[in-house]
């Protein structure tokens, strides 16, 4: 007899709500602007990342998941900017996992979701390099605001919470896959 997870209801609810509710256009645009600021902040800490983007200045990448789309272009400074809707995408990256719950579970396990890639191969290789190698050192940014020791402590707490959450997801995934005898 197979048993279902008590979290399957939550996953189904997220799927239904996520497909019917859409945020207002102004909120999406503001989120995109803030995301570009954050991405550029992270990129400015990695000279090699900026050098890779300079090679692709003016080229556009479209990220898609379900009905959510983010359209970015590389600037001459090696940073990112929002591309307008009329700019054709040189590269389109589409997350193939439709379920928000399954996508969250994949990400929490530390795995990469399935991606369909269409477009320029060299641009795709450089975007992949950025995803693999560029990381936000949030602890360093926190230390500028609250000092080194508190930032380090918060970093340790965050890493411990992340490890515990990954362990929980792994255990929950394993339990769901087993059939009691």
General description of the model:
- This protein is α+β, with helices and mostly antiparallel strands and 181 residues long.
- It has a domain at 25-139: Nonspecific Lipid-transfer Protein, Chain A (2-Layer Sandwich).
- It is built from 7 helices and 5 strands; from the N terminus they run αααββββαβααα.
- The protein has helices at 8-20, 25-43, 47-54, 100-108, 121-133, 138-146, 148-177; strands at residues 60-65, 68-74, 80-82, 91-95, 115-119.
- A 5-stranded mixed sheet has the order 3-2-1-4-5, with helices on one face.
- A hairpin with a 5-residue loop joins strand 2 (68-74) and strand 3.
- The longest helix is centred in the last third of the chain and has 30 residues, at 148-177.
- It is globular and about 45 Å long.
- The protein starts with 7 loop residues before the first helix and ends with a helix.
- The mean pLDDT is 82.
């Amino acid at each position: 007899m197979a048993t279902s997870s008590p979290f399957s209801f939550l996953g189904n609810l997220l799927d239904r709500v996520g497909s019917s509710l859409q945020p207002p256009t102004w909120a999406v645009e503001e989120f995109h602007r803030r995301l570009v600021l954050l991405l550029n902040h992270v990129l400015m800490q990695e000279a090699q990342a900026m050098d890779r983007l300079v090679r692709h200045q003016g080229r556009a990448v479209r990220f898609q998941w379900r009905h959510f789309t983010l359209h970015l272009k590389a600037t001459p400074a090696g940073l990112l900017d929002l591309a307008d809707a009329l700019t054709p995408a040189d590269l389109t990256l589409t997350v193939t996992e439709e379920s928000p719950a399954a996508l969250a579970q994949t990400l929490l396990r530390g795995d990469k979701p399935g991606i369909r890639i269409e477009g320029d191969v060299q641009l795709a290789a450089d975007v992949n390099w950025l995803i693999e190698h560029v990381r936000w050192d949030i602890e360093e940014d926190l230390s500028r605001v609250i000092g080194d020791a508190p930032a380090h402590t918060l970093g340790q707490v965050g890493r411990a919470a992340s490890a515990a959450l990954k362990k929980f997801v792994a255990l929950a995934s394993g339990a769901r896959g087993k059939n009691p005898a």
